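Sequence only, no structure available. Ideas?
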Amino acid sequence: MFFSRYSAALGALLVFLTLHLPGSAAAQSVDEQVNAAFAASTGWFVSLIFSPFPGTSFPWIVAWLVVAATIFTVYFGVIQFRGFGHAISLVKGDYSDPNDAGEVSHFQALATALSGTVGLGNIAGVAVAIGIGGPGATFWMILAGLMGMASKFTECTLGVKYRNEYADGTVSGGPMYYITKGFAQRGAPGGKVLAILFAIFCILGALGGGNMFQSNQAHQQIAGIVGEYPGWITGLVFACIVFAVIVGGLQSIARVTEKVVPFMGVLYVVAALIIILMNADKIGWAFGQIFEGAFSGLGVAGGLVGALIQGFKRAAFSNEAGVGSAAIAHSAVRTKEPVTEGFVSLLEPFIDTVVICTMTALVIIITQQLTVDPTTGNYIIENGAIVTVTGASGVGLTSAAFGSAISWFPYVLAIAVILFAFSTMISWSYYGLKAWTFLFGEGKTKELTFKVIFCIFVVIGAAANLGPVIDFSDAAIFAMAVVNIIGLYVLMPIVRDELSSYLARLKSGEIKKFK
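Reply:
I predicted one. Tokens follow.
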């Protein structure tokens, strides 16, 4: 019955798409009118979230995330370095009690959260950063990633501490729960209002940036290989696969992500390492470009400040530290110690930004995709960006860098992009679902309603030109960070108490290994 309802909904949507495919002038006119109307009504919100500080090109929302990460790094005594080894032990399952409440293991929670962040930001976003800020942007990107580890630690500890645990073994957690309960515990006002705002932004972000944008970019990659064809076909295939996974709940999602995430991560990193090792004689030079560019700018637009802005911006957009999304996935872990998942989550920005983003950057730099003026030694700048050898930017620049080493590597990249898009969609479906049930209540029918809506948006995203919609949904994701970080500032003393208690019991031997 569930599948028949789903099929009927998709069937109705396909009839609409067939009648309004972009091929006709009337359909294009409707699309243009819808886009224009949507941009006119939501443009103020997008501008508000991504607006720069006066007289600069530095978005205030990036500063909001970076400042918070710096504060948490200092407040918790550089926990990202002190706790790194213990985080590895937890992921290995050394301290995992199978009788603890929760739905997934530490590794599965990490894989699910990583699948929501490791994606096009690591491939296209890094290329954009280097294309504008030069190699030096890589240094600032790594630094922002390292600091973001403390933000993830803070929010994911709170996610487990204040989660709801139900009789059937399922759990619900995330910023909407720890803001509501934590504010009440500390006697702070406004918790319920902030939680509702976060849930609304999370649903919008899940349907847009975590869904439509992913299916749209996956279709572009596939069409680039096999030739142009209607996007709704890609969307329908993705929708059916996504529905088959998410209808089984988080345990089903976790079983998929624990296989897909390591595979796609290893696939991408190995491909990058092959290219780097093929150009081993340039590795030292590439790191020299990164460090020199970080502090001199190496003649790029904006100099040092331009490199810093691009590095911080792409790190923030890639690892989502402080956004609060990962706390939703980590809340479902099997543990009775909230801080253990804080330790595990700090590995996310390290893997996402320090490892994978750096690999992308090195491939682009080592294959010398950026053009240099032989007279001055500076990069050639046009329209505020560095001129590339092939003229490509974004994912096209990364693809060109891979292809310059081995002709068929862009196909490997295309597979990685498709897997990244798929894994991001199933993770964000869970984030959106938990925000949905927070607002409308738990229950199979309510959950199924959201899952069907989510899959319909998969098809819409692949079939339509949704520029303003994507801009709005991206803004919604970072609006989540505004609400979430306010909550983290209020509740970080509770995290410190949890950390002190846990470390004391770990040192005394009260907390023992299970393996």
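The first strand starts at residue 164 and ends at 165.
Hope that gets you unstuck.
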